[in-house]
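Subject: Sanity check before I submit

Could someone independently write out the structure tokens for this chain? I want to compare against mine line by line before I put it in a report. The sequence has 180 residues.
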Amino acid sequence: MKNNLDNIFKDLEGKFDLEEPTIGHFERFQTKLNKGSDLDSNKRNNLFYFIAIAASFILFFGIWIGSSLTNSGMELAELSPEMKETQSYFVSVIEKELQAIEIERNSDTEHLIKDALLQLNKLETEYQSLTLELKESTDEKRIIFAMISNFQQRIDVLQGLLAQIEEFKQLKTQKNETYV
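---
Independent answer below. Compare away.
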């Protein structure tokens, strides 16, 4: 093994590169390295500024969205414990009626349910405008009465829908009995 290494070095003797770089090579190399790092730091700084600006836009957009969503009005529940109880009652009745309607949902009743839900959405929009009005108004009693009336109208719509569905089922049953 040792002889092999000695033979390899004897064969390569005189073939090694023994020249040295020209004068100033290290300084030129160092300046090139410094220029490259300056470019990299400029690129990093530009990227950092771009990310900072994008984050600022996202932050301001989020704040704007958040403020528009929180620009809601005043609910009945915020006025007094009695109003909170009243609102809870109406909301629970509406939820029960909606659950009863969902049980009755099928291809035959779908059209009736969609129409009723459109009416409910209109009433909900009116209610939201009433909450904004309540927040800014001094005539509380009139607005509170309108809000309670809105809840009652929603319940009436849902109960009317359930009655229509029941009539539809009875008519369908009678129709099937006459053909038998």
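---
OP: Matches mine. For the report I'm noting this point. The chain has a mean pLDDT of 79.
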